[in-house]
Amino acid sequence: MAVATISSWESKTDPKLPPKDRLHAYARFFARTPPANGTPHLPGEQELTAGERERFQTLHQELLNLRDAVRGVADSPSDGSILSFKDGPITIICPEVPAANRSSLAREENPNYTEAYRYADLDALIELWGQIRASNPELKVTRWLAAEVVPSEMKGHLVVLGGIGWNLVADRLQRELRDLPIQQVEVSDLKNGEIFRSSEPGGPEFRPVWKERANADLAAVGTKQIAADQTEDAWRGGKPRRLVEDVAFLARLRNPYSPHGTLTICSGVYSRGVLGAVLALTDDDVRERNAAYIASRFPKGSFAMLMRVPVVNGKAGAPDLDIRENRLYEWSPNEDPTP
User: Fold this and answer.
1) Is the overall model pTM greater than 0.85, yes or no?
2) Is residue 76 in some structural domain?
3) Considering the domain boundaries, does residue 241 fall inside one?
4) Same domain for 55 and 95?
5) Looking at beta carbons, which pairs linking 21-28 to residues 24 or more positions away fall under 8 Å?
6) 200 and 247 in one domain?
């Protein structure tokens, strides 16, 4: 270990944060009872005895708490994200592109078959997968298409990606989570996504924002092609429009299928909303501020919220929860919703 590196961690004016994996290694090293003979070495976690494992867990948590205190995000997850878990397994349940809309590369008879083309919300999955793997390097992380999930995969920590239209597990969970005061529902005026609606009588609806485009002709494209491309919502009154703001849904709850597991839901009206929900937890510019807000606002850890997702030149932005206007709806168990 370089002296300069250690000095940067101990600086009182501009401290640098030691990597999380380094703290994990230190905790393992000092939890191990020194051998009577021989040279001390860094043990693997599986080499620790029951007593050593207990010391390791205590020391590891102390080091993580000190790291968070330096960063100024006390009581937040160890890497500033609710996507950090203390144990596993972690299962990501993903939506599936309908067969009629898949690329030819998603067909198994194609010599260039690529399974990933079966996955919907692929931008969100790539972002989410990378963050979860980086935050939980020693835990088992798997991904499943919703239609392929078996009961044994519903244990532990579930991360459900996408809305009720293309994710059967998301649809099933919504029916089981009866206390959740926000529901995703189909409406007749949208064909390609599902809005969010308060379950209170006369409660508000939360919809995406569109802006009309100029100089385009519906007849030149054809209604059959528009339907085949699933772009009906991008046309109104024979005129095209572009999506300028989506709605993201983010929730952290108890996993109803596992008493000690968690359920994290990242959804949206459209795919940009799904990606926005993920970016709120992963984007370098906002994730630590968002983690601090979530830890402060929902100290017991369970919550659900709706957020604005800006769409600029077709790309989804990361909601910043420090901006009040980005928070459309907030709820946690045993408290009234906050619109």
Assistant:
1) no
2) no
3) yes
4) no
5) 21/137, 23/60, 23/63, 23/64, 23/67, 24/60, 24/138, 26/59, 26/63, 27/56, 27/57, 27/59, 27/60, 27/63, 28/56
6) yes
